């Protein structure tokens, strides 16, 4: 672990550190725990003779997460006899961050301080809590996800329908404009514009040449809103609206394609205790073009209902229901369990079981039903 921390520090400083830091950060410890105060010493070049400020905004980076914190001075400014000014600050370490992290000043040319964050210590007894000091500085958490992220679940599953087949799905989304770039500053409404792509393939492993029986390609262009809530709120709400094209890339009588406009909601509620959560993900759409399969609405309908229940570090169940005319549609249940813990990431390896019943496992088979199918494999995003 120590070798990893040293390597990470060298890489972070070589790649991202400025050539000459005007503000230097130092700490007396290399390991910190969530919810505990951390003392940080700040040294500034003597080019500015004004006293160091009482509060300094800073950023803690842990993988894709960026948490805004505030350094609060704990003593009077100290003008040293050398060429720099020095002052001690304190911050309360953010809960939920663990592993290698980097602390730097926000909006200033500063050095980057590498620390190892540990889980929060056990709660003290009631008599110890009564004697505990007042909590130190408040902080504001800000999450800025990277431009390229996972869109829908990605998995490799084996099952039996006609023969032994593999179901493979890859998916990603890309934010087209930098959330803090000049385009968004000029046109703020472009902040949530995304390009998405999902590819689902049915691979026939029993045939001689092992061909892909059918593949659905789904590029999309959509706008995503993430509604902010209080840092301690158990609710998380997201909304998407946009255009999606789906086709199987084939010709003649096997050609299938549709164009839709869609809207979807992703609402999650974390249950008391902070481990388990429930989710509600409805999606509705309207067809712009279905000339190659004009009756597809009879089997896919105009919407689906998604339900989710589980834990980030344990079992997760996802249920997706589609119902069209006369009760025709499909039901899909996905159960997954982590095979290893993720390190500073939301992706990992999961044991994955999928049960599918109904019409249209692929776009080519939208009006055919093979009964109940059981599939098992692994996923890297669920």
Q: CATH homologous superfamily of the largest domain?
A: Phospholipase A1
What is the total tally of β strands? Answer: 22
Report Rg.
26 Å
CATH architect. name of the largest domain = Beta Barrel
Distance between the termini: 28 Å
Notes on the structure:
This protein is mainly beta and 382 residues long. The protein has 2 domains: 130 residues, Immunoglobulins (Immunoglobulin-like, Sandwich); 234 residues, Outer membrane phospholipase (ompla), Chain C (Beta Barrel), CATH 2.40.230. Helix content is 8%, strand content 52%. The protein has 4 helices and 22 strands. Strands 11-12-13-14-15-16-17-18-19-20-21-22 form a 12-stranded antiparallel beta barrel. Strands 1, 2, 3, 4, 5, 6, 7, 8 and 9 form a 9-stranded mixed beta sheet that branches. The longest helix has 15 residues.
List keywords for this structure.
mainly beta, 382 residues, 4 helices, twelve-stranded antiparallel β-barrel, elongated, 52% strand, Outer membrane phospholipase (ompla), Chain C, nine-stranded mixed β-sheet
Give a brief description:
The chain is mostly beta strands and 382 residues long. It is built from four helices and 22 strands.
Write the layout of secondary structure elements.
Layout: H1 2-16, E1 23-27, E2 31-33, E3 37-45, E4 55-62, E5 65-73, E6 78-79, E7 84-92, E8 99-105, E9 113-118, H2 126-131, E10 148-149, E11 154-160, E12 164-175, H3 182-186, E13 193-204, E14 212-227, E15 235-247, E16 257-270, E17 276-289, H4 297-300, E18 303-311, E19 316-323, E20 329-338, E21 350-359, E22 369-381
Parallel strand pairs: 2-9
Antiparallel strand pairs: 1-3, 3-7, 4-5, 4-8, 5-7, 6-7, 8-9, 10-12, 11-12, 11-22, 12-13, 13-14, 14-15, 15-16, 16-17, 17-18, 18-19, 19-20, 20-21, 21-22
């Amino acid at each position: 672990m120590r070798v990893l921390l040293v390597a990470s520090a060298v890489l972070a400083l070589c790649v991202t550190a400025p050539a000459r830091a005007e503000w230097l950060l130092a700490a007396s410890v290399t390991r910190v725990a969530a919810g505990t105060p951390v003392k940080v010493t700040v040294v500034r070049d003597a080019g500015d003779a004004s006293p160091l400020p009482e509060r300094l905004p800073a950023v803690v980076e842990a993988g894709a997460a960026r948490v805004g914190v505030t350094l609060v001075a704990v003593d009077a400014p100290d003008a040293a006899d050398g060429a720099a000014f020095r002052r001690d600050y304190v911050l309360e370490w953010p809960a939920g961050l663990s592993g290698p992290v980097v602390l730097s000043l926000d909006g200033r040319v500063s050095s980057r301080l590498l620390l190892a964050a540990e889980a929060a210590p056990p709660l003290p007894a009631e008599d110890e809590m009564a004697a505990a000091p007042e909590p130190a500085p408040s902080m504001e958490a800000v999450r800025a996800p990277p431009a390229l992220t996972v869109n829908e679940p990605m998995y490799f599953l084996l099952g039996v329908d006609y023969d032994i087949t593999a179901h493979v799905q890859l998916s990603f989304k890309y934010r087209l404009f930098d959330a803090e770039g000049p385009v968004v500053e000029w046109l703020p409404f472009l902040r949530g514009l995304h390009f998405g792509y999902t590819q689902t393939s049915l691979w026939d492993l029993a045939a001689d040449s092992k061909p892909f029986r059918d593949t659905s390609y789904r590029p999309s262009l959509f706008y995503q809103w993430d509604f902010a809530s209080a840092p301690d709120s158990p609710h998380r709400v997201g909304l998407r609206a946009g255009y999606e094209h789906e086709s199987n890339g084939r010709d003649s009588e096997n050609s299938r394609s549709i164009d839709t406009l869609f809207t979807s909601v992703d609402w999650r509620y974390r249950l008391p205790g902070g481990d388990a959560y429930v989710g509600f993900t409805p999606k509705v759409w309207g067809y712009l073009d279905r000339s190659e399969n004009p009756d597809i609405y009879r089997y896919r309908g105009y919407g689906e209902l998604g339900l989710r229940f589980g834990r980030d570090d344990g079992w997760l169940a996802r249920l997706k229901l589609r119902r069209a005319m006369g009760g025709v549609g499909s039901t899909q249940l996905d159960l997954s369990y982590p095979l290893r813990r993720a390190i500073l990431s939301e992706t990992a390896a999961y044991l994955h079981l999928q049960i599918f019943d109904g019409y249209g496992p692929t776009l080519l088979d939208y009006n055919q039903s093979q009964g109940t199918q059981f599939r098992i494999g692994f996923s890297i995003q669920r």
